[in-house]
Amino acid sequence: MSMINYASREINCKLVYYGPGLGGKTTNLEFVYNKVEPGSRGKMISLATETERTLFFDFLPVDLGTIRGFKVKFHLYTVPGQVYYNASRKLILKGVDGVVFVADSQIERMDANIEAMQNLYENMSQHGYDLTRIPFAIQYNKRDLPNAAPVSELQAALNPGWPVEEPARQRVLPDPNRESEFLVSQLDGQWIERAPYFEAVALTGDGVFDTLKAISKNVVKTLG
Amino acid sequence: MSGSSSWSFREEDAQAIQGILTGFLAESNARTALIVDRTGQMVATVGETPRFDPTAFASLTAADFSANDQLARMLGEPEFGALFHQGERESMYLADVARRVILVVLFDNRTTLGLVKLRVKSAVGQLNQVFTDMFSRDGTSAPGVASEFLGEAEDEIDKLFGA
User: Fold this and answer.
1) Per residue in A67-99, pLDDT tens?
2) CB–CB of B90/B108 below 8 Å?
3) How far apart are CA A183 and CA A174, in angstroms?
4) Which of B10, B35, B145, B156 is the most buried (most CB within 10 A)?
5) Do A6 and B37 touch (CB under 8 A)?
6) Do A134 and A121 touch, CB atoms closer than 8 A?
7) Option in A12, A72, A130 nearest B153 (CB)
8) pTM
9) Nearest-CA distance B14 → chain A (Å)
10) pLDDT of B39
């Protein structure tokens, strides 16, 4: 959970972009960096290889301004997509407040997406965190490519949902971002919750801010 | 709790830490002492105001320390309790505090590594006490943010990231 610093009146929240290699995590951050007013963001740091593959992480602090006397900041991180950097992927998840999984929509990348998703669940649980209990969103990137898989297929593979055990939460929850779809619903007598999802083309910025808005609002809700 | 454990940092904590670090800087002749949370957030800065971007510095420090923690485990050590980075003029010394935060000391040739190391030891001992108390009380009496906070935060998010 985020740290509330009552001495400096600051609240810092950590958002991590996770996903397979070359899926567009860094591109998401670069778009945010270029579009947010310079006064509202800090320096972007990329620890990358010479070929611009993320080696350790990218980091971008974004300043939400002062709210009720608290300076609220989001710290955006990406992890390296390549599997052999798993040790550093795991380190970045430490203290995470919200996760965005950036999936590569291309059919050929389906296995890489699934592997990265499993790896995310594993790394979260090794830290003792439960992905189904913290703000989590999925972004289907590269929707403009001709070989993009249908969203329904991506949803079935990457976002099939998890059972809702608490009786208080067993009620229909509409997806605020799309009509006639649900985040919590009943399937074959079982209550299921899915992560909110967004379609995106990170290179042009389509869907980048929709994803960021949704995850940051959900993180802010956990502060109360 | 599903996520990482939360903690809050109060005015009296800041004063206690400020007192310990001010004493440490006077005794060691180091320039600046910083406390960075292991998740990459700056908690406190005492001494000369650094000229670099503190937010970026904190995230890199935490990453540096975490990476070295993993290297220690590979060597069969539970941890490296301290790290030292030597520059031509500026150097930094990092030490673990209560397994949750990192003390970073910036110093130049007005002092020596030996003196810094010697003085860090007692500062870390005192800081350990302060942070251990802070973490053990959390979740019991930390005041929450105001209820109007949420609505206003959502408005700001819409403004900043486009409605």
Assistant:
1) 988 899 999 999 998 877 888 889 899 999 999
2) yes
3) 6
4) B35
5) no
6) no
7) A72
8) 0.86
9) 6
10) 85
DSSP for A87-151, please give it.
HHHHHHTTT-SEEEEEEE-BGGGHHHHHHHHHHHHHHHHHTT--GGGS-EEEEEE-TTSTTBPPH
pLDDT in tens, B8-46: 788 888 999 999 999 999 999 999 999 998 888 899 999
Q: SS in 3 state form for B20-67?
A: HHHHHHHHHCCCEEEEEECCCCEEEEEECCCCCCHHHHHHHHHHHHHH
Beta strands in chain A (DSSP E): 3-5, 10-18, 45-48, 54-67, 70-78, 98-104, 136-141, 162-163, 173-174, 182-187, 190-193, 197-199
Whether residues A3 and B153 touch (CB distance < 8 A) is answered with: no
Q: Inform me whether the pLDDT recorded for B90 exceeds 90.
A: yes
With an 8 Å Cβ cutoff, are B154 and A220 in contact?
yes
Residue A81 Cα, gap to closest chain B Cα (Å) = 17
CB atoms A4 and B41 under 8 Å: no
CA distance A108 to chain B (A): 32
Residue A110, amino acid: M
Residues of B in contact with A60 (CB under 8 A): none
In a structure prediction context, what are the per-residue pLDDT tens digits for chain A, which is 224 residues long?
A: 577 888 888 899 999 999 999 999 999 999 999 999 999 999 898 888 877 788 888 999 999 999 988 899 999 999 998 877 888 889 899 999 999 999 999 999 999 999 999 999 999 999 999 999 999 999 999 999 999 999 999 999 999 999 999 999 999 999 998 888 999 999 888 999 999 999 999 999 999 999 999 999 999 998 86
H-assigned helices in chain B:
11-28, 54-74, 113-137, 149-161
A161: tokens are: 């949902």
| Cβ-based neighbour number of residue B80 at 10 Å | 17
Contact A224 B147 (CB under 8 A): yes
Q: Give B-chain residues touching A128 at CB under 8 angstroms.
A: 4
**Spatial contact of A148 and A207, defined as CB atoms under 8 Å apart:** no
CA distance B38 to B66: 8
Contact A213 B44 (CB under 8 A): no
